[in-house]
Amino acid sequence: MKKIQVIPFAPVPQERLTYLLPDEHSGILPGTRLLVPLGYRRVPGIYVSDFSDADLPGIKLKPILDVLDPFPVFPPILFSIAEFASWYYRLPLGLLIKSGLPPSLTKPLPIPPRTLQKIQKDLSGKTSQSPIQPLLPFTTDQESAFQLFKNLSEQNPFSVQLLEGVTGSGKTRVYQEMILWALQQKKRVLVLTPEIGLTPPLLDSIRNVSPNTLSIHSKQPNGERLRDWIRILNHKIDVVVGPRSAFFAPLSDLGLIIVDEEHDPSYQSREGLSYSVRSLAIKRAQILGCPVILGSATPLLETWYQVKKKRYHKLSLPNRIGQLPLPSISVMAPGPRGALLPTEVITAIKNTVDRGEKVILLLNRRGFVPALVCLECREMATCSHCSVHLVLHKKPKRVLICHCCQSQYAVHSRCPSCGGNVLAEEGLATQKLEEIIQSFFPGVSISRIDGDSPVSSGEGTSSITGDILIGTQMIAKGHDFREVTLGIILETDRMLALPDYRSEERAFELIIQLAGRVGRHLPGGRVILMTQNPNDQIFKEILSYDTEHFFERTNNERLELSYPPHRKIALVSLWSRSETLILEATGKARFEKTSSNGVVIQGPAAAPVSKAKGEFHYQFLIRATSIEGIHQAIDRAVVLFGGIKGLTIHWSIDPPDLF
Ligand SMILES: Nc1ncnc2c1ncn2[C@@H]1O[C@H](COP(=O)(O)OP(=O)(O)OP(=O)(O)O)[C@@H](O)[C@H]1O
Ligand SMILES: [Zn+2]
């Protein structure tokens, strides 16, 4: 029996464990799933390599229990990037690999033989060849951007290229040509997109240049996802398009990675294992020696900074297609005496709809109203498991919902605190906005696009037919609505005031992206921002689309306050049902506040949502000049808090925000 190394799908401190492989299985290849004993458990894992060191004195090795599949499902081409991710984000390698596999391959079971037979039969069939429509001729901007890409990619094995194209400048058309370039080199392509459900047009455009394209995403049925994975493993697919869950697609001969809308925070997982596939895409391209494209109209400040430092290249599409200008942006105060919209805005909506054009209203809060308040004691309805107010929803039924843990509560008629019987609905969310706007414009059709509407569950944008479109931030993402010429953003000040170092950057990006949906095909586009503080510096930058000034200013602030891109940061979170336990543990521990090697630790402080799903949440913020400093601090936190019963510890390196 030979000795082999296995990465088990378990949070083990050593990344690889050594087992014995019975001779009858000696022919298996690295990347194959095995079942191994781990303590009293049987866990699946990946066979990585043979173990060539001589003896392990005093250690009695156990044989593996089974070989789960007849072929490797996590091929060795993915080992280096998985190992890098595990090192950089301090995550158990086995769990990281598990997070990248289709769900059916994460269980301690073989693929059922009948399923496998069916998939293999499908594989032998011809891949579908959808008709290829003629491609649009390039504009001069597109031509120069593509030529620069081609030169850079042919001169350097690895390069990071920012495709900065204003909204509606035709980035997708450039992606098409880049993909064709890679296919001509007999290479394959990975295209990452923030939300597959919202961007089927991107998939169509890519299929048009490469019919052997498929999309992988977490809403696919398990069987389909497994079948697609095996098709990719068998080299039947040239281009994979998808969100975070597509990152580990087992494409061999990868020659190009495109990260569309690279600024989007959904590239970083928030729950469970925290890692950013946008950042890992850059590393994967570096390991493979191929170009990676970061596409956006509003790149991350970090990306802008790397371009400034000449580490990333920039390709520009400075104009909209058809010489249509970007919409004009203006600021306006909300109406007098609490009226939601001033008369001027109502008139602008009416005129737009009367012309047969469309209006978008963005309000970044779903539900009916964000607060149900007792007029006697001013108590607000609050979740019993989380420290957040309940949001009143009216559709599909009248119910109070916790947006943190999703618990639902019946709407009470009396205040649970003082028995008062006047409960007022305060504030505004998308469902109420829809009701108000409908009352102003009775005959006009309205579509609502938010986390509660069908479009968010992957139905695509074809259902969005209203003349007035109301939505949360979702409405600003990548859509190419033809007739929209007026955009209105409500409660802009609230977006800017979120307690986070990135809130201005996020608001800037959201406003420019929303403006990007306006006037894409018709002239006269206009955007109105509702704000009480029209003289704030950020509005001057937004009104003139002065990204450069915004980035310069924000970058200086980040430098002064020691935030990225000038420092690495991480959040270490402690969770417990007992707040006292957290406070005692952190009070006793010597988690050095400032250490000699440039690591600064702040906290613990109650997290912005200080209790969620029944557990209290405290955070440390760590800053360091290097990733090694961050690692040291996290390792120390694990030693201090990792073994305490009743306390769990999580961390997020380069978190997209501090929530
Ligand atoms: N060369 C071209 N000739 C004519 N029309 C074009 C050309 N390139 C792109 N278009 C059209 O321009 C519109 C905008 O293109 P696209 O959606 O790719 O923009 P974008 O840069 O991705 O914008 P956003 O960042 O807002 O998503 C689309 O309707 C597309 O079909
Ligand atoms: Zn809750």
TrEMBL record:
Keyword Lipid biosynthesis attributed: no
Catalysed reactions, as listed in the record: Couples ATP hydrolysis with the unwinding of duplex DNA by translocating in the 3'-5' direction; ATP + H2O = ADP + phosphate + H(+)
Entry EC no(s): 5.6.2.4
Cofactor(s) essential for the protein: Zn(2+)
GO cellular component terms listed in the entry, alphabetical order: primosome complex
Coiled coil, from the record: none
EC supergroup of this enzyme: isomerase
Sites where the protein binds Zn(2+) 1: C374, C377, C415, C418
Similarity-based family: Belongs to the helicase family. PriA subfamily.
Protein known as: Replication restart protein PriA
